[in-house]
């Protein structure tokens, strides 16, 4: 049933975007962390998404033109991994900081507050879009059940 797979797609999107918001919050929380358990300053984390269970757009379009419809049961998006950003860390001159090197520079995390805020907003909007799609599918199912009355 293609209709039920729509719930799977929206649910996987909700989970993926929730994790994206969690990672953005973690990055913001560690914006000034100069010493981690592994040593050195905190490195910004990012999410890598991947689709699963669905055909390519080209294949979906071909199926639709042949009247086959959507065939990707248990399709959706998932987090392929959480990766560390390899951008260069910033050096700030602060000779009084406990983590300053011999020349007075402190290695600060490569976290940009503006980028994290934008990522959080984008994740929130994607989350809201998935909730809207889920509610629309739920409403269609309710209306379909009312037809039988």
Explain what this protein looks like in three dimensions.
The structure is a single chain. With 149 residues, the protein is of the alpha+beta class. 48% of the residues lie in helices and 17% in strands. It contains three helices and four strands; from the N terminus they run H-E-H-E-E-E-H. The strands form two sheets. A two-stranded antiparallel ribbon has the order 1-2. A two-stranded antiparallel ribbon has the order 3-4. The chain is elongated and about 80 Å long. The model has no long low-confidence stretch (mean pLDDT 87).
Round the Cα radius of gyration to an integer and report it. Answer: 22 Å
Percentage of residues assigned to helices:
40-55%
Structural class, from helix and strand content? alpha+beta
Mean pLDDT: 87
- Proportion of residues in β-strands: 15-25%
Order of helices and strands: HEHEEEH
Give the low-pLDDT segments.
none
Strand order of the largest sheet: 1-2
What best-fitting shape do the alpha-carbon axes yield?
Answer: elongated
Number of helices: 3
Q: Give the beta-strand count.
A: 4
CA(first)-CA(last) distance? 22 Å
Summarize the main sheet: 2 strands, antiparallel
Give me some keywords for this one:
149 residues; alpha+beta; 3 helices; 17% strand
Draw up the topology in text:
Blueprint: H1 2-29, E1 45-52, H2 57-65, E2 76-84, E3 90-93, E4 105-108, H3 113-147
Antiparallel strand pairs: 1-2, 3-4
């Amino acid at each position: 049933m293609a209709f039920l797979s729509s719930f799977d797609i929206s649910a996987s999107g909700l989970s993926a975007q929730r994790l994206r918001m969690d990672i953005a919050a973690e990055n913001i929380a560690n914006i000034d962390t100069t010493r981690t358990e592994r040593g050195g300053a905190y490195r910004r984390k990012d999410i890598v998404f991947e689709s699963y269970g669905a055909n390519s757009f080209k294949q979906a379009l071909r199926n639709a033109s042949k009247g086959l419809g959507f065939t990707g049961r248990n399709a959706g998006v998932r987090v392929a991994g959480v990766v560390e950003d390899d951008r260069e860390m910033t050096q700030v001159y602060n000779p009084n900081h406990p983590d300053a090197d011999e020349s007075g520079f402190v290695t600060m995390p490569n976290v940009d507050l503006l980028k994290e805020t934008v990522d959080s907003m984008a994740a929130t909007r994607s989350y809201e879009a998935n909730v809207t799609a889920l509610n629309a599918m739920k409403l269609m199912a309710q209306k379909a059940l009312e037809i039988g009355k």
